[in-house]
Amino acid sequence: QIENELGVAECLKLLGDIYRMQGKYDEAIGMISDAQKQFETFGNQLRAAECLWSLGEISKNQKKYDEASEMTLKSQKQFEEIGDKKGAAECLEALGRIYMNQAQYDEAVDMLSRARVQYQSVGRIVNVAWCYQRLGITYRSQGEYKKAKEAFTEALELFKGYPGEKYYIGYTLVNFGHLFLI
Hints:
This is TPR-like protein. This protein is about 85% helix and about 0% strand.
């Protein structure tokens, strides 16, 4: 009624993300796609890129990996164009997870390594640790146990600097322990 189209787009994005988190993907896709188009119309590249990222996450959760890669790559390019290094790093990390899910380990290592460097450049140390964690899992899956051990060790050292990350320290130790079961 007040003709606030940007506000409508914001609401669509938020509702779409709620549906995404609830696993109601059809509803989420419709709302987030509409929001993305509206943000593009308004020239709000940041919010449009965030919509693309959300659509990529939905596709990943649905195991539609080609679609997920496409959306996430588009999002990453948009984040890079506007200079949002954190957003671009999140996309690279998401691409790494997509490739891990498909057992495309070389591609996963490439994306996770790039995400790690990007996170490092913006001071997101916990995210750097997560990248090492995922690299360790990827290396273990490839049978590269020495590299996996090094990656898990790096993750642990970084997580130890953040006392609130005890759960992640435990998760890393569990993954580290899997190296000794092989």
